[in-house]
Structures are given as C-alpha cells and as structure tokens.
Description:
By secondary structure, this protein is mainly β. The protein has one domain: YVTN repeat-like/Quinoprotein amine dehydrogenase (Methylamine Dehydrogenase, Chain H), CATH 2.130.10.10. 7% of the residues lie in helices and 44% in strands. Strands 1, 20, 21, 22 and 23 form a 5-stranded antiparallel β-sheet that branches. A hairpin with a 7-residue loop joins β27 and β28. It is globular and about 55 Å long. 44% of the residues are buried. Mean pLDDT is 87; it is low at 1-33 and 35-57.
Amino acid sequence: MTLRPTTARRRARGAAAAQTTAVVASAALLLAGCSTPAAPSAPTGGAAASAEAAPTETAVPHGYVEGAAELAEPQHVLAAIGPAGEVRLLDLLTEQTEELEAIGEVASLEHDGRFLVATTEGGVTIVDTGVWTVDHADHVHYYRADARVVGSLELGGPATISSTESRTAVLGDGEVVLLDREALGQGEIVETGRFPADSGGFATPAGDGAIVGVDDAVVVLDASGTEVASEPCTDPQGGIVTRVGAVLGCDEGAVLATTVDEAGESLVELESIGYPAGTAAALRATGFDMRAGRATAAAIAGDAGFWLLDTRERTMTLVETPQPLVRVVAVDDEAGHVVAIAADGRVLVLDESGAELGATEPVLAATLADPVAAAALSLELDASRAYVPVLADGSVLEIDYADGARIARTLPVPTPLHIAETGR
C-alpha cells in the first residue's frame, strides 16, 4: 500500500463510506494474492508431446500458510500467565493445556489475536499461541500452528501490539517497532523499522509504515518514518482497530484512521470524532475494547458508566450506569450486548442503554481488592462467551452473556494472573 497525504481529511460520512476499500491496520486485512492460482494448461501435440512434457505443478492451496494447518472452525485458546511468568495455553474446545517455557514476571499482557506481548524486566517478550483467524469479509480462514516463545525485543513497557497480514507493530516506552509478521510466524524477530511514539498511546501498521500517537497528534508515517498525514489529538492513548479503521483516544474524543482508494492509490484518511458538548474531563475514555472484528467499541467513562464509540456512524455516546465500572467490552451484536466488570466484583451484561440484563455474584471482589491482580485483570470476549480470571481460586470463569451472565464453565487454570483469548 502506497501512503500519501489525503487532501480532504474531513469528508462527509457518506462519501467516506463509499470510498473506503480497506481498513487501516485491521487484523482482517485481505491477503495479497488470496485467490487460488490457476493450474498450468495440459500439454498439447499428441502422445509424444505428452510424454516429453514436464509434470504439472500442484497449485498452492487457497489461503495456504507455511507451517500451519487450515481448519474448518475457529481454534480458541485461552493463554494464561502466572505471577512467576509460567505460560499455559488452554484449548477451549478440548480443555487440554499446553505449557510453554516460563518468561519471567510479567507486568502487563496484550495480544493481537495470535501473538502475545508480555512486558517483563528484560524487555518485551513475544509468544506465538499458534492459533488465529483471517477474516476476508466474504469468507474466513482458521489456522493452527505450533505454539512457542518467539523471543524478546529491547523495548520498555507497557507494550501494545497490532497487526496486519504483513506487519506487526509493537509499541513500548517511547518507540514503536515494526516487525515482519510472516517471519514472526516462523519464529523469527525481523525488525523493519523503529519510530518515536507516545508511550501511553497506540500504534498500528499502515502499509510499510505506521499510524501512531505522538506530540499531541495522530500521525501517519511511511516506511522511512517520515510523516505523511496528521490530525490534532491531545494526549493520544487507548487505541484499538475496529472493522472500519484504527482509533486512538484523545482529550477531544477520538481520531479514526481509514484507508480510501483514490485514482488507484491507497491513502490514509484521518478524521476526528468529538465528545458531546460539555463532556467533563473526568469522563474521558482512556482505553477502548470490543469483540474482535466489530465496528463499535466501549470505554470506561469515569464513575458515570461507559462510552460507546460507533466507528460506522462516527459517534461517541455516553451511557450512564448506577454503579461504577472497571472494565467494559462492546459485543456489537444484534442485541447490543455490553459486558462489564462492576467495581463490586460482579460481571454484568448490559444493553446499549445501560439496562442490566444479567449479573453474576461478586466473583471478582477478592481480585479487585488485590492491587496486583486488579491491575492485571482482563475481560476477554468472543462471539458467545466472556472469560475472567479468578486468581485466588486458580480458575477462569466462562460466562454466557446471552443467557443472563450464566457461568457456563469453571476452567481450572493454575495462577491465571494475566489471560488472553486468541484464535478469534
């Protein structure tokens, strides 16, 4: 993808929607050459010619990935890292557990649906969980390969990760590192670039460059690190990639980055999505979360409730709740489910108006009372289930959010301090 500045960053929504042909940095970015290669024509000229002809080469299977098996259904894995850095991968279909080598005490954990980035004392360690999904809009591929600890980056934390099919961006302490994703999948760390970036923000690949938050702006960088587009954004942080584009939070609201096609050339368009007039600074969103591959994300709004950021409609909506929340994830399904963890330790299922549809008992009260466990607490969510770790019990709760927050399974996982669901 060639990057060049757009001449009209603030286009009307209808025009932008009509011109959008790809999502910047989406994990569901279309693979180049996805169509099945045509087999060579059969030789002509009779039996003698057929006998002398070279054997016909077998076409590469559609969606082929070296070293991976393509399967008919998603391969969901729950990665759990304990306080001493022990890494366990629980297959959510078979409930079998695979243990990898320990990586040392982990301060934070993020993932891109396949790879984990764990911030440790020695830098940022990358773990390949070996399962992932490639969404091509009209069809989907599901893959499984060997899981392993890939290696470490000389980078401070806390780290975030975002990927396309060709590049992975890891943001750490003041730098974003671009990696060759194909090499990463083969167990090699191959850097293709390093650029300055705000530590608390978010970075995602864009072609051979990146979209990053830096110097009170969201900027698009080319492969050399040269700025080719920018949009004002005070204190950029809390980014995420939606089905529409990449989003970074700002004091003013959010900046959305999408890709448009103009005269056969792809370019990045940046536009601001503002908070409603009069929004207090204490309600600012500092982190977005959602079900992978959807268009609407949620964020905590101080003690007032949560924000819903609809990247299709370019709107930020404040949804007030009677109790403060500590985690929130937008499901973005037909029922408008939102799953949250309340400050009292209950897991809540809400609708888009904030009405409570179901709740567990305060199963996470002890977790929230422990500063280390509370800081590490994550809420992982897929198309039908939500997962939360209960460190004291050595388990992970699987919650059916479409059935009144019913606890569907209690999965035994020793010391699940950090968890991440991959394969989505």
